[in-house]
Write a structure and sequence with these properties.
Blueprint: E1 5-10, H1 15-27, E2 32-36, H2 44-50, H3 54-58, E3 61-63, H4 66-69, E4 75-79, E5 90-91, H5 93-104, E6 109-113, H6 122-125, E7 130-132, H7 145-161, H8 175-191, H9 200-214, H10 218-245
Parallel strand pairs: 1-2, 1-6, 2-3, 4-6, 4-7, 5-7
Helix pairs in contact: 1-2, 1-7, 5-7, 8-10
């Protein structure tokens, strides 16, 4: 299970945090580190802070985008220190890690952490199935990135020791298939004029929340995209018929 888990750090600014996060991962049996546009990497300070987790740093995968980092992933838990108004499920790490492990038993999954100063953007969090928040003092909730990785990795390790495999019920759609559906859906809704009285960005966030709860299977995504394609075709035929019927009208 742990071999299917990748820790994704987005736009990390301090190389020491990358090294300390690698050390935190290795102490809890995690090996797969993904870095999205780190400001400084490779870096001697990262190596110093890794303190023996040099192999995790050496094998780290550098990515240019979140889409690249989540390629093939079926389930993502995004970490945040701030509970914003984004409408996706929020859990503690203790509640979220067993669910992550259940998916990791058969498929690649991800733990997503944001930059030190501002955390994850709303767009980044919208690409996760679950949002997790580490309980802390509300008057001082700022937690060091590597410390957050250590806490979550510990909760993951504890959950792994108590994990009881469950027979698979679904074959979840991977990240890139879901993103393809969202793009197709947004294009179709724009084409049929649904966005005329709606806020497209806000609406797509809510649709992402809806489908994140549903945990769609690959075949279900194909069915939905088939419906979208038929909708687009039907709308095009209606538009062509209307234009034909009214082309000679003054």
């Amino acid at each position: 299970m742990l071999n299917n888990i990748r820790v994704v750090l987005s736009h990390t600014t301090h190389p020491g945090n990358i090294g300390a996060a690698a050390r935190a991962m290795k102490t809890m049996g995690l090996r797969h580190l993904y870095l999205i546009n780190p400001r400084h990497f490779p870096d001697a300070q990262a190596e110093a802070m890794a303190a023996g987790a040099d192999d995790v740093l050496r094998d780290a995968v550098e990515c240019s985008s979140l889409d690249e980092a989540l390629q093939g992933v079926v389930f993502t838990v995004a970490m945040t220190a701030r509970l914003r108004d984004i409408s996706i499920e929020v859990k503690t790490p203790r509640a979220a890690m067993p669910e992550l492990l259940q998916q990791a038993a058969r498929h690649p999954v991800a733990l997503l952490f944001g930059t030190e100063m501002s955390g994850l953007t709303n767009e980044e969090m919208g690409k996760a199935q679950v949002l997790a928040n580490i309980p802390s003092d509300p008057e001082f909730s700022s937690l060091n990135l590597a410390a957050a990785v250590q806490i979550v990795a510990y909760e993951l390790n504890i959950a792994a020791q108590a994990h009881i495999p469950v027979a698979p019920e679904i074959q979840p759609a991977p990240y890139e298939q879901m993103e393809g559906m969202y793009t197709h859906m947004e294009q179709t809704l724009a084409e049929i004029g649904f966005f005329n009285s709606q806020n497209p960005g806000r609406l797509m966030q809510r649709l992402r929340r809806l489908y994140a709860r549903a945990r769609l299977e690959q075949e279900e995504v194909n069915i939905l995209r088939g419906i979208l394609s038929v909708t687009t075709g039907y709308n095009a035929r209606l538009r062509a018929r209307y234009q034909q019927e009214h082309k000679n009208v003054p």
